Amino acid sequence: PSPVRRVEIPKLNGGVRLLGIPTVTDRLIQQAIAQVLSPIFDPMFSEHSHGFRPRRRGHDAVKKAQTYIEEGYRWVVDMDLEKFFDKVNHDKLMGLIAKHVKDRTILTLIRRYLESGIMVNGMEIESDQGVPQGGPLSPRPRFE
Questions:
Q1: How much is the pLDDT for 96?
Q2: What is the per-residue pLDDT for 133?
Q3: How far, in Å, CA of 114 to CA of 89, rounded?
Q4: Which of 4, 5, 77, 86 could bridge across to 130 with cysteines, CB 3.0–4.6 Å?
């Protein structure tokens, strides 16, 4: 795998969201890996989770929220773990994935993508932690 290309996307609140854009070839391979992983991991997620999920849309979450209001619920909790994806421990992530994926080739390829680095202004930066946002193996970012 090649290093991802760093792109800064302005947030509405000021700041920037850092994306890692893979090469076309890496994007194709990552999409194939995502198609293998999604049926394995998606059933493990909460039925109440709508973000970045196949066959789920923001409209589904809004409909569910309307149902909760009709049922008398009055509290909403909204949280965002700051810089979460930047701090993901590769070994812990790979350990969790390996509990459900036994194919060593897939596991090795995922690890290589995690460690492929980031290209910033023509300079390659090593990545020993974190998961780049912007590719098929990462959740799509919200532009806020």
A1: 95
A2: 87
A3: 10
A4: 86
